[in-house]
């Protein structure tokens, strides 16, 4: 009898432990605010390379108290700003979203298209009319910010802020609100896709002429320049200057047109984002809100000065202080433990070829349109006169398909003409038939990056794959956009509510971010999502 009573007691205890009430008690509360941070042109290595000079309250706080995905890579082969921002928030790929570049040749209308351009949109605020003709309409899927809004019957507030229009618009999704900076006027603007007039707080911010005030400053190194041992000497002939300066060396003067190329572009962005957070009451309502911030200035500076420059080191040391300012303000306004932050980048960056040459590393440049001209000449010689190449964007060749049909020429015929010539040229690794998915002898890993890239309405029929450390560009400064690790390996940090403390070196990808945040929020993932939640992150 005693044994029977003992069994009943154990069973009853088990039922209590598994009751819904107890399960609810153990479930972490959803954050009141999610802050998504995209740093434009940030290599993963900047976290470790400059770590000794970072403060304890910025990047280090997120790395040490949050979760660090150390081997985070882009999962497609077009590492530029528009696609980067789109796919952080959609968890998708260019093949599905249609966001195949910052610009592309739109085959349906036979014209070049900018990623955020919308001919039906008009400027809201004071600025250049063209700058206001922007919206997210070119993006064919939802974002995690859209899904959050839908989940709460549009009770959640979503705001995107960036100097670059595409850096604000794509993260905010189709249903959020976006603000971007117009350098011609020094104002923050938006379009009528979002509203008919700026809110009073935004207009008041513009009326303060904050951007103009920053032009009164001079860009000097944050620390004594001799302490910047993680970067090469300041005076290099292959760096670009800003503000019309004769040389790319400290100190730098700041003008309204070059503000975005200095650390004060980041400061201005955070100033406006915090103003939005305060005045819109983000994190104060009944639903989780979302603030998407993109820091565009590292990209402008990185293109000009390159990743080994004193300027890039300085801009990251100063951005670290902006991260500290942001986290302190979140602690104050929302409360520590009530918000979740993630930080990543839209792409990384290549070394300046002249820097590599100086150190005997193989590298090179394609100058101007020399490759495109050779392609056209080869096709005319083989198939006769005609405009065979309609456009070249993102290393992709857009063929004149009606002309091919008229002349009874197949893509395979084009490939057989171009492949043996182009692949023997210095700097070209391979020519790939994107449309038909014929990858030849390319390693399987890179085939996946190309499969995720091709969109039939917006991608070229062929893509030219450059060799590592080569790019199509200019003799000074650098760029990005390849499928190589120096362009695809970017940071991914999670911090705050719902996030474990720790790190992993296992492969993660950009598409996983939206899935992970969706799990923390308990919402449907975006409708074009192909990523997976990073389980180690989830508390």
Q: What do you see in this structure?
A:
A hairpin with a 4-residue loop joins strand 8 and strand 9 (187-191). The chain is α/β, with parallel strands linked by helices.
Name of the top-level CATH class of the largest domain: Alpha Beta
From the N-terminal CA to the C-terminal CA, the straight-line distance is: 44 Å
CATH homologous superfamily of the largest domain, by name? Alkaline Phosphatase, subunit A
User: Can you give the helix content as a percent range?
Assistant: 25-40%
By secondary-structure content and strand pairing, the structural class works out as alpha/beta
Given the structure, what is the number of helices?
A: 20
| CATH topology (level 3) name of the largest domain | Alkaline Phosphatase, subunit A
Any idea what the radius of gyration is? Answer: 25 Å
Counting DSSP E segments of at least 2 residues, the number of strands comes to 22
User: What proportion strand?
Assistant: 15-25%
| Inertia-based shape | globular
- Estimate nothing, just give the exact number of structural domains: 2
Question: Spans of 5+ residues with little confidence (pLDDT < 50)?
Answer: 1-27
Mean pLDDT: 94
Major sheet: 10 strands, mixed
Strand order of the largest sheet: 6-9-8-7-12-1-13-20-2-21
Instruction: Tell me what the CATH architecture of the largest domain is.
Output: 3-Layer(aba) Sandwich
């Amino acid at each position: 009898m005693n044994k029977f009573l003992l069994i009943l007691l154990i069973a009853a205890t088990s039922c209590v432990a598994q009751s819904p009430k107890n399960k609810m008690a153990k479930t972490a509360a959803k954050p009141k605010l999610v802050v998504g941070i995209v740093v434009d042109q940030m290599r993963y290595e900047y976290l470790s390379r400059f770590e000794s000079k970072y403060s304890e309250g910025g990047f280090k706080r997120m790395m040490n108290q949050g979760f660090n995905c150390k081997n985070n890579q882009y999962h497609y082969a077009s590492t530029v700003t528009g696609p980067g921002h789109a796919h952080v928030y959609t968890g998708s790929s260019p093949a599905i979203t249609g966001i195949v570049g910052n610009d592309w040749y739109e085959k349906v209308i036979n014209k070049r298209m900018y990623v955020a351009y919308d001919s039906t949109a008009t400027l809201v605020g004071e600025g250049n009319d063209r700058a206001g003709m922007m919206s997210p309409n070119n993006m064919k899927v939802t974002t995690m910010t859209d899904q959050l809004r839908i989940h709460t019957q549009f009770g959640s507030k979503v705001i995107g802020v960036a100097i670059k229009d595409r850096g604000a618009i794509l993260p905010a999704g189709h249903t959020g609100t976006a603000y971007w900076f117009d350098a011609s006027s020094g104002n923050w603007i938006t379009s009528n896709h979002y509203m008919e007039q700026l809110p009073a707080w935004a207009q008041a911010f513009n009326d303060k002429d904050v951007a103009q005030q920053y032009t009164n400053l001079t860009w000097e190194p944050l620390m004594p320049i001799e302490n910047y041992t993680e970067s090469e000497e300041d005076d290099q002939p292959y760096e670009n200057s800003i503000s019309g300066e004769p040389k790319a060396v400290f100190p730098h003067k700041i003008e309204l047109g070059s503000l975005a190329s200095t650390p004060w572009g980041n400061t201005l962005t955070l100033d406006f984002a915090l103003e939005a957070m305060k005045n819109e009451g983000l994190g104060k309502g009944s639903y989780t809100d979302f603030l998407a911030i993109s820091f565009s200035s590292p990209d402008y500076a990185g293109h000009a000065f390159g990743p080994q420059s004193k300027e890039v080191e300085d801009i990251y040391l100063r951005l670290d202080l902006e991260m500290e300012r942001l986290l302190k303000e979140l602690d104050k306004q929302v409360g520590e433990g009530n918000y979740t932050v993630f930080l990543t980048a839209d792409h990384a960056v290549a070394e300046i070829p002249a820097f590599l040459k100086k150190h005997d590393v193989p590298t090179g440049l394609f100058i101007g349109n020399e490759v495109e001209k050779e392609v056209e000449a080869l096709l005319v010689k083989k198939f006769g006169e005609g405009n065979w190449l309609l456009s070249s964007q993102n290393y992709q060749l857009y063929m004149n398909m009606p002309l091919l049909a008229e002349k009874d020429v197949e893509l395979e015929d084009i490939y057989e003409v171009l492949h043996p010539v182009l692949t023997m040229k210095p700097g070209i690794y391979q020519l790939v038939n994107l449309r038909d998915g014929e990858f030849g002898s390319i390693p399987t890993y890179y085939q996946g990056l190309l499969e995720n890239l091709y969109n039939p309405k917006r991608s070229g029929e062929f893509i030219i794959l450059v060799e590592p450390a080569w790019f199509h560009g200019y003799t000074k400064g650098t760029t990005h956009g390849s499928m190589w690790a120096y362009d695809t390996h970017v940071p991914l940090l999670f911090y705050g509510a719902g996030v474990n403390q720790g790190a992993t070196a296992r492969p993660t990808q950009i598409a996983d971010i939206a899935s992970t945040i969706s799990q923390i929020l308990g919402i449907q993932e975006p409708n074009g999502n192909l990523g997976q939640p990073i389980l180690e992150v989830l508390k």
